[in-house]
Specification:
By secondary structure, this protein is of the alpha/beta class. The chain contains twelve helices and eleven strands. The chain has two domains: 208 residues, Spore Coat Polysaccharide Biosynthesis Protein SpsA, Chain A; 108 residues, no CATH class.
């Protein structure tokens, strides 16, 4: 009944825990489709052990390194289940996860149900942080504002609805999950539910090694995702929702300014991204002259150190979205 789709790239250190959490599920009518994206570590050897151990595990190998969205779409195309869950290869499900999610969606007309998520560093319980979406929130506004209410792991989908959405947009180097959820929330056929039980049924691993990467390349990829997101959704939104979209622009601008002032990116990268934000992405937001002045003031004050003032970024973002 449930297909769990897991893209994997060089997660040999963690994938055993992930796959063991699936073997420990109380609900047993599942399949796991692992899409290996040309791993160069011991991932495949570990995965092959599980293929022998349990026939519910299946493996697809990409011929070239193609990214998470491509891998998830391959899993979507191959899935046999009526319902779908997307899981990263270093995250963990609680033993009751599939049982809870199946019970929530099986006798309903929901296309999508969202559950609470916990976080951890090395073992479950070593982090107090949780993602618990609120049913009363305007979730479309939150995604557009880059105040992300849930991640891809927190959801169970009806497969036919995801097929109608045509899965993940493979052009996005970043914001793939945000783009999919935004598109789903704009779809008139969506009927979704936020689980209010408070039961945390999945756990996101906070791996500090993810921070050890080239910040210049990372920020350029982030910009490309931001550009695609703003360009795409600015054409689909009314005036009210277009103002919410300013939150995504502002949040990324804040990140760029922070990387500059802390010298995590070089000057050329900063100027490249800042100029593209101003000339390529910003015009899609259709700002008034006052909103542009507000944004310029924010940048000047930030670079002078005002970001150290408590509430500075929050207040400027809120005003920017209303001007």
């Amino acid at each position: 009944m449930i297909s769990i789709i897991i893209p994997n790239f060089n997660k040999a250190s963690f994938i055993t825990e992930t796959l063991d959490s699936l073997l420990g599920q109380l609900f047993t009518d599942w399949e796991v489709i692992i899409i290996d994206d040309c791993s160069s570590d011991d991932s495949l050897a570990i995965i092959n052990e599980y293929l022998i151990k349990d026939t519910r595990f299946r493996l697809i190998k990409n011929s070239t390194n193609s990214g998470g969205s491509y891998s998830r779409n391959r899993g979507l195309d191959d899935a046999k289940g009526e319902y779908l869950i997307f899981l990263d290869s270093d995250d963990i499900l609680s033993p009751k996860c599939l049982e809870l999610r199946y019970s929530s969606i099986r006798n309903s007309d929901y296309n999508l149900v969202v559950f609470p998520m916990g976080t951890f560093y090395k073992t479950i319980g070593d982090s107090p942080s949780q993602w618990i979406p609120k049913a009363r929130d305007n979730h479309l506004k939150k995604f557009l504002s880059h105040d992300i209410p849930w991640s891809i792991m927190q959801t169970i989908w009806r497969k036919d609805f995801l097929f109608a959405l045509e899965g993940f947009d493979e052009y996005y180097p970043r914001l793939q999950d945000v783009e999919l959820h935004t598109r789903a929330l704009l779809d008139k056929g969506l009927n979704y539910h936020i689980d209010n039980s408070g039961t945390t049924d999945c756990f996101y691993r906070i791996d500090e090694r993810r921070l050890n990467f080239n910040q210049d390349d990372f920020m350029l990829r982030c910009y490309r995702g931001i550009e695609l997101y703003i360009t795409k959704f600015s054409t689909l939104l009314d005036k009210k929702h277009l103002k919410f979209l300013r939150g995504t622009y502002f949040s990324f601008l804040n990140q760029v300014l922070n990387k500059k002032i802390t010298q995590q990116i070089n000057r050329d990268t900063y100027e490249n991204i800042y100029n593209k934000l101003s000339t390529v992405s910003l015009p899609h937001l259709k700002l008034s002259a006052l909103a542009k002045l507000h944004l310029n003031l924010y940048c000047r004050l930030y670079l002078c150190g005002a970001y150290k003032i408590k509430g500075f970024n929050f207040i400027f973002k809120k005003i920017f979205q209303k001007l």
